[in-house]
Amino acid sequence: KAQGYTVIQKEVFTGTESNRVPIAYKTSKFTCLEKGWKQLPGGDERFGVTWAVLKDKTTSQVFAATSTHFYNVGGWDHKLPIRVKNSKMILDVTKDIVKRHGCEVVNMGDYNMRTYDEAYHLMVDDGILTETRFTAFRNNGIMIRGGHTLNTTAPLVGSPSRVIDFFFTTSKVNVLRSRTIINMTSATTSDHAPVYTDISFIK
Question: Is the pTM of this model over 0.85?
Answer without folding.
Answer: yes
